[in-house]
Amino acid sequence: MPRIKSLIKIEGTLDELTFYKSQDGYMVRTKGGVSKKRMASDPAFARTRENGTEFGEITRSGKHLRHAITGLLANAKDNRVTSRLTQVLSKVKNEDLTSIRGQRNVATGMATVNGKAWLKGFDFNNRANMDSVLLSNYTLDTVTGEVVITDLNPAQQISVPDGATHVSFSSGFLNLDFSDPDGYDLQLSPEMNVPITGTANTVTLTPAAAAAGTGESYYFLKIAFFQEVNGMQYALNNGAHNALQLIEIL
């Protein structure tokens, strides 16, 4: 896609050129394309229609997952999380080896070992990958969703951004069925907030209950940073350094 390298910033349409602003700067593209009516009926575009149907299903699945974890995701995401998640779910969809082309879906793909492997370890904030933020091992109880980080020394085992004085930990246990738009149950642990010092603490994050439902089980770990000023804690840099990872899927 060509970019505009000029001091003049243009948005709109001029002759056959469309100028627009994206996350990558000011861009330009040509007008044109096949009519919507022809696309919907011409046999020559059968593959295109199938691809479009599957892409629509992928985007709905991504929205379903993001909606299910709104409470965790709100302050621990980057501005391209939607597109990054769509790319991963496209690979999950490809693990559906039973549906015909045009009807392959994320729900069927996620029921496979390979489908789960594509999504496991997904970081919702690519500015703060969990493996780079948390320099310590943890254990996960897949029955209760409890996450335990034993003898964590925040000053030594957390990559602390400038200005942070405290760090909080939380976990989530989600049951989600991609084939059901309303099929999810998220159980959250209480947050554990500790000062960033050399004092070791065992962090125990226990969700209120085991997530219920007929879908797969998803387990999340979140780390958020704060700065204390006059006895009050404030979110650091609007959550830019917060990490949220999907640590396991069963």
Output the keywords:
three-stranded antiparallel sheet; 12 strands; 250 residues; six-stranded antiparallel sheet; alpha+beta
Describe this structure in words.
Helices cover 26% and strands 29% of the residues. The protein has helices at 36-41, 46-68, 70-73, 81-93, 106-110, 113-119, 130-133, 154-157, and strands at residues 12-14, 17-22, 25-30, 139-140, 147-152, 166-176, 184-188, 192-195, 201-205, 216-229, 232-235, 243-249. Strands 6, 7, 8, 10, 11 and 12 form a six-stranded antiparallel beta sheet that branches. A hairpin with a 7-residue loop joins strand 6 and strand 7 (184-188). The longest helix is centred in the first third of the chain and has 23 residues, at 46-68. The protein is globular, with a radius of gyration of 22 Å. It starts with 11 loop residues before the first strand and ends with a strand. The relative contact order is 0.14. The mean pLDDT is 88.
